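lol ok so funny story. i was supposed to be doing the assay writeup but got distracted and ended up predicting the structure for this chain instead. priorities right. anyway since i did it might as well share w the group, maybe its usefull for someone
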Amino acid sequence: MTVTELVGVYDADGSLLGELAYAWGKVRGTRHCGLCDITHALVRRKPEWDAMVARLPLPLRVLHLDELDDPLREAVRRTGAPVVLAAEGGSWRELVGAADLDAMDGSVDAFEATVVRRLGEGPVP
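and the output, tada:
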């Protein structure tokens, strides 16, 4: 089967209160999202993130937990967040999990290399 789309899911809500709660938790050391570290520097999205998304062979959207439709919500229930999911054959599978995102230590280059490599490997059994 062919992957048709990628969705990155932050471990945070996108509402104003959700963003504030995440920021407060990050300052206190009680919240962390490896995908947030990759896509953002402080409060702004990294320009290198936007350039990388434009280079990817597939569309990549990033969503917050409160922005998910039912199929994505179910996939995140199975995988946890943060996560990068791949649309394949009408369902979602994990492409990059939370531990891998954390190991990238905020690097857009590491993210791109991992995504491109895993897309080339095909479905995960």
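The chain has six helices and six strands. The chain has one domain: 3-121.
back to the writeup now i swear
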